[in-house]
Structure formats: C-alpha cells, structure tokens
C-alpha cells in the first residue's frame, strides 16, 4: 500500500475487535427501520403536516361554521359539531397515506431496497417493521392532533352554543376513531406502495381507493350502489369517525373500521406475497 | 467462497445469464469481466440473493444467499452507488444497515473513517460526488467485515487517488483471506489487481483462468517496421512461423520476430530503418478478442 497522505487507510478490521455481526431478527430490523424513518426528513415533515392539518383545518372550519350557524330544525338536527372539528382528518389522511407509500417506494426508486434486502434476505421483516412503525408513529401524532382539533373546534363552536362535549354519546369514539382511521390510511398507503413499487402509482392508487372507487360504485344500479359503497375503504373507515352514522348508508362504527383495516391487511398481504418471491 | 452452478436467468424472453458455472475462491482478487450487458450485474444480484435464478444455483460459503442468517457477516456487496436515500446522511445510511444485525455504531464510525468519508459522513448522501458515493458503497459492503466481498464496477468514475485506494484495499482484503469478486468492463483495471479472471459475454462463460494465462493466450506480439526498401526487407525476414502483413501506410507488421532481430537483420543488409516499434498485445486486446467472438471458448481452468 502506498503511503499517500490523501489516500485513506484501507478498511482493515482488527481481528480482536472484529465486529461480530449477529443474526438478523425482526427486532433488529425494526431498529434499522426506525433509524431510517427518523432520518428521512420527508417522513418527519409529513407527520408534522398531518398534525397541523388536522388541528388547523378543524379549528378553521369551526370558525367558518360559527359564523354560518344552521337554520331550521332539519339543519340543526343534522348539525354535527364533532365532525366539523374533525374535518381536517379528511386532508390529513392524504398526508399519512402518502407517508405510507413513500416509506417503501423511496427505497424502490433509489435502489436502496436492494441494499436493504441484501442485509435482510428474508425480506418480509422489512415490510412488517415498516408497517409497525408507520402505524405507531401515525397513531402517536394523530391522537393529540384529533384531541387538539376537537378541543379547539368545540371551544370555537361553544361561542355560538353549537358545541358538543367529549362525554356525549359516540363523541369519544368518533374522536379516537379518527386517529385510528388515519393509522389505517397510513397502512393502506404502505400496502399500495409495497405492491406497486412506484411513488406515482402508489399515490394515484391511494387517491383512487380512498376517493375514486365510490364514484365508480355510484354507477351501480339502485340499492346495490349503496350496499357496495358501505364496504369501500373510505366510507367504511369513516363510519368510526362519525358520531351518528346512518345505518342505511354506513356500516356500524367498529365494523366499518374493521372493514377498512381488512382492506389494508389484504393489500399488505398481497405486497408480502409479491415481495417474498422473485426479483427485488 | 462463491460457487455458481449452471446458473441461468431469463427476464421474459431475454436470457441475461446462461448456464454459468464457476467458483470464486478465497485469498485472491477475482476479476469479473465482460462487455456492458454481458450479465455481470445480473450474476452479482443473484449472488446477493436479490434476483432469483431461473435455474441453477448460487452458494456463498456453502449456503444459499437467501438463507444466510447474518448476511452482512458473510457477504458484503456494492451494486449501485446511488442506492441511498438522497436526504439521509451517510452515517445514518450505514447505521440503519448496521442495526439489522446488531453491528455497533463504533464499527460504523470505523468504516467511515477508513473509507475517507470522515468529514462528509453527516452530510446528505444525495449531495455526494460519484467518488464519495463509491466510497460510501464500499464502506457499506465492508460494514459487517464479511468473508466475501463483491463489488460491481468499483472504480467507475473514481479519481486517481480513489482508484489507488481501491486497488490497495482489494489486495488487502484478499491478503486477509477474504473472497474478493470485482466486476469491470475494462480489462486494464482488472489486470492491475486481480490474479484470477472470469470472463463472460452474452451471459455465457468465456474464460475462467488466471490473468497470466490469459495474457499467454494472447496473439503473438507484432513489430511495425518501415524502411527505405520494404520489399527487400520482407524477403530478408521471410521464414517459417513468421507472418508479414503490409500496412496501408507502407509499413510492415511482422509477427514472430522481435524488434531487435528485425533491426539487426536490416542493418546487416544495409537497409535503413525509418521506424521500428513493438506492438504489445495488451490484456485489452485479449479481452476484446475473446468477447467479440460469440463462440464459446474455455481456457484451461487454473
């Protein structure tokens, strides 16, 4: 080896201090994926954006509705103060869903996935770790976000005597349910991203699945449209975020969340089957 | 040790690798040569368990790549130097990798220092120059101190310092008894470091031999000569095992004699030599010669 000052020493491991690489375990992969998540600025920003959108839009829309209170018995009966304060969830679900997509498609896009899979040849621990992390981090940020949105929104609406208490029937469930809804939306994004392996396709499919297919289902004849729509990801999931879901057009709250979660589970399973075999 | 047996890979109707069999042994640097598109990267992806062979098998230290329990300890690879998240720092890229099998952060800092990335380690890997990306890729390959190291085109786009560093590194790794497998589409690069070469073309094995044997199989060196009387000189040099080819500019290309033999013969006959140059058959020529032919040719294996 020539001793040029500008040439770094070769990577020679001292035999004594040989870094004993240990077995790859699910827990170690989880730590690895956590390191990735917390050092991916886009992920951190997306989570922050989800908090701000949920809380900010909830309060903003409450301010709008405070100035435009409902008129007439029907409008007052249909007035849902909890839903108004939680309206930001409709926007924030896009943020966390896109986060789910990006968490895996960014690796496919750069080729990093090959580095990852060479280190974790069984591959699936990577997907499960990402699923756990995206779910936990989304839940951790969305719980305070929906509570802030609800509290802020209700304090605005209270000035016009339109507010509802957290203790009122179904309200706590709708608030907590909104956080769970966002969590499942993030998992749905991850499933789509892992299945499609492309950011553009993944985000397009996310929009399609959350908003698009209701339109298609609406083309079905008569009551079939309503029956089918209930089971689609968006409407099914939103049942849990609504204080009084209409039984005709919506599943029961927890059933709806279950169906939404089932969609995410099916997509993640399909992604796992595709990931496990074949070329990375 | 990498053992490849009847390895074949199809992508749809395209055959990337066809019935490849060879062994990469520990303690030496083995070059993996072939023109672009010969199937080198495909083979390397299969060695790392990333692509699934259509048929045939790959083993690393006797195990199928997908069944390794601590892969970073067994095999370290660098395939694509841009395979990093652009906004993640080099340090965190390596740290995330290290976490998968409990490699301590101390080792991460160690490979960063050794790869000469010290200052840059906290910067976004996406802002790295090609040379720095290359160093990062190699640092990642060596993170687990693996017994087998495979690098795809490691000197591509490196500056002189970087190339010198890699050559020294590869020899060091081989001296430590590791299996070192390095691809290139340039013979001259491999000739500097490798002692053994695997040559492939169109996905097939062309040669599995030592660099020395490969050179020996080269066509005989020729000498280019120009003199005041070419016809007389040609008559003078004529003999068995000697071929004389006239070049377009009037010079003669003589194979089978050395430059000094030709010069002496011309001098003795009173012919004035205007130009006399030995044309060395380089490894590059051998390589081009080998890979141009679609015909399969197996040099005696070492």
Topology summary:
The complex is a heterodimer of chains A (280) and B (302).
Chain A: H1 26-38, H2 41-67, H3 73-78, H4 81-85, H5 89-110, H6 112-119, H7 124-158, H8 171-196, H9 199-217, H10 222-231, H11 233-238, H12 253-276
Chain B: E1 2-11, E2 14-24, E3 29-33, H1 40-47, E4 55-60, H2 71-74, E5 75-78, H3 90-99, H4 105-114, H5 130-142, E6 148-152, H6 160-175, E7 179-184, H7 187-193, E8 196-201, E9 204-210, H8 211-216, E10 222-227, H9 230-237, E11 243-246, E12 252-255, H10 259-268, E13 273-279, H11 283-292
Parallel strand pairs in B: 3-7, 3-8, 5-6, 6-7
Antiparallel strand pairs in B: 1-2, 1-4, 8-9, 10-12, 10-13, 11-12
Descriptive terms for the model:
heterodimer; A: 280 residues; mainly alpha; 12 helices; B: alpha/beta; 6-stranded mixed β-sheet; 4-stranded antiparallel β-sheet; elongated
What features would you describe in this structure?
The complex is a heterodimer of chains A (280) and B (302). Chain A has 280 residues and is mainly α. Chain A has twelve helices and no strands. Chain A is globular, with a radius of gyration of 23 Å. Chain B is of the alpha/beta class and 302 residues long. In chain B, 34% of the residues lie in helices and 27% in strands. Chain B is built from eleven helices and 13 strands. Chain B has helices spanning 40-47, 71-74, 90-99, 105-114, 130-142, 160-175, 187-193, 211-216, 230-237, 259-268, 283-292; strands at residues 2-11, 14-24, 29-33, 55-60, 75-78, 148-152, 179-184, 196-201, 204-210, 222-227, 243-246, 252-255, 273-279. In chain B, the strands form three sheets. Chain B has a six-stranded mixed beta sheet with strand order 5-6-7-3-8-9, sandwiched between helices. In chain B, a hairpin with a 2-residue loop joins β8 (196-201) and β9. In chain B, α3 crosses α4. Mean pLDDT of chain B is 88; it is low at 294-302.
